[in-house]
Amino acid sequence: MTRGAGGPPAREPAARILAFGLLLPLAAGAACVFGFAPFHAWLVPIIALATLFHVWTRSRSVLQAALSGFAFGLGYFLTGVSWVYVSLHDFGGMPAILAALATFLFCAYLAIFPAGAGALLARWFPAPRARLIAAPALFVLLEWVRGWLFTGFPWLTLGTSQVPASPLAGFAPYVGAYGTSLAVAGAAAIVAALAGSRGWSHARAGLATGLAAVFLAGAGGRVPVWTEPAGPPVSMALLQGNVPQELKWQEEVRTRTLLAYRQMIFEARGRVVVIPETALPAFLDQLPPEYLESLRAHARETGKEILLGTVEREFQPGGEYRYYNSLVRLTGEGNATFRKRHLVPFGEFIPPGFRWVLAVLHIPLSDFSRGAEKQAPIVAAGIPLGVAICYEDIFGEEVADLLPQSQVIVNVSNDAWFGKSFAAEQHLQASQMRALETGRWVVRSTNTGATAAIDTHGRVVGQLEPFTSGTLVADVVPMRGSTPYARIGNWGALALLAIVLGLAIRRRR
Asked: CATH 3.60.110.10 residue ranges in the chain?
């Protein structure tokens, strides 16, 4: 509002509120997707978030700030996770209208978190300068809440956009993805302050120096080496079967899939052979005994270790089964198993009160049980392997929980559920962040992509072409030691958030 001479405040034009308070944040949020894979334009999220912060400093009410945050979040997630529609409609069998509505509502739910950050900012910090100090901390605080509330969805965590090339990725070994998000948001706040100031002054010089310091600190964070090789490299063969999701569970395709994977295993040149998540379309105990014995015999003859992504089931008293999404080691010594701990809502389990969803969503095996919270690494070729199944590796603190015992992180996944969308590349980028956070190599075996090997610097050193059948052989170095993030998890980032909020509170007016 503006105040006329001697009169009451004039109402701000509705057109300006719409353009500046809603459409501009919506466009800024949508642009953020270019910061992530496969585009990797890591500067874009900084500029986009600076735009939102600039809007927030001029928001005249809690509602206006909340709506601006919601518009930003809606643009962010509608462009970034629109692949949810592909999963629901193309592979889940949900009618197109319902799938579109469900995708929109899901993105609207995710947009509540930046909306909440805007509302808290306007409510607690009336002064524009204090808002610019508090905005990065509140934005990242709500991003952290999004990562655990209702089992959590930390996809497109802002800090992940900086992997692997941005100097700000250097913060990852110390304060993880959320600490890196704070560095991104802090840089954005400085950019917003620079854009809002006029002329050249000591203040602008200080802001420019501060912005340079953030990037220099991130670049310097890459210099210390926190982990070291625990032994010689081991050759790992990562299989990508490229079985179409819509055909995978059809009876006439089952035998062809079993034979194709066996041939790939026999031809693989790696010491450790990794087969993707739920690669074989049958329960482990339903696979033909002669089939499993042929794999075990091959392992004994060649000295290979075979890690099989599969579905296990356990008979329970009362005539029911429990199902587990597992990675199983096949050797002559028996099986070693890791069972998935963090399940996907609606994809792997149905939350209480939502059983009706099964009437419109046709996803096989959507009632898994969780594996034990603490599980020992799978040992293959003498190397303890930490396992993250499917989207478990987007939860940084859960992967860090596998350390220090695990010397290599193995991810088996099936992103075929999301078709030819950005999902597989975004998932790969999350794995790159886990490599930086833990100082470990991360290897990924997937059904249709992205099958890759990632070194301790978060760099992809080998990758198969998506939607092709093939085997990636990589010499993977087992590592020992722990990064600061592996020791303290997200507590370092939360401590930084508290410090920044404390500074902002001191400057509230």
From this structure: 228-482
In the set 248, 390, 392, 397, the catalytic residue is: 390
Closest CA to 164 of 222, 232, 224, 231: 222
CB neighbours of 100 closer than 8 A, spacing ≥ 6? Answer: 85, 89
> At a CB cut-off of 8 Å and minimum separation 6, what does 103 contact?
82, 84, 85, 88
- Catalytic residue among 248, 305, 312, 340, which? 340
Residues in the chain: 509
Residue 414's nearest CA partner among 498, 310, 330, 490 is 310
302/67 Cα distance (integer angstroms): 62
Query: Domain 228-482 is classified in which CATH homologous superfamily?
Result: Carbon-nitrogen hydrolase (3.60.110.10)
Tens of pLDDT, residue by residue, the chain (509 residues): 344 444 434 466 777 777 889 999 999 999 999 999 999 999 999 999 999 999 999 999 999 999 999 999 999 999 999 999 998 888 888 899 999 999 999 999 999 999 999 999 999 999 989 999 999 999 999 999 999 999 999 999 999 999 999 999 999 999 999 999 999 999 999 999 999 877 657 788 899 999 999 999 999 999 999 999 999 999 999 999 998 876 777 777 888 999 999 999 999 999 999 999 999 888 999 999 999 999 999 999 999 999 999 999 988 887 788 999 999 998 756 669 999 999 988 777 767 666 555 556 656 556 789 999 999 999 999 999 999 999 999 999 999 999 999 999 999 999 988 999 999 999 999 999 999 999 999 999 999 989 999 999 999 999 999 999 999 999 999 999 999 999 999 999 999 999 999 999 988 76
In the annotation, is 374 catalytic?
no
pTM of this structure: 0.94
Nearest partner of 64 among 144, 3, 1, judged by Cα: 1
Instruction: Specify the amino acid at residue 227.
Output: T
d(CA 472, CA 451): 8
- Phi and psi at residue 396, to the nearest 5°: -60, -40
Instruction: With CA atoms as reference, report the closest residue to 336 among 344, 346, 328.
Output: 328
Residue of 143, 248, 277, 312 with catalytic role: 277
CA dihedral 38, 42, 46, 47 (to 10 degrees): -80
107 is annotated as an active-site residue = no
Distance between first and last Cα of the chain: 19
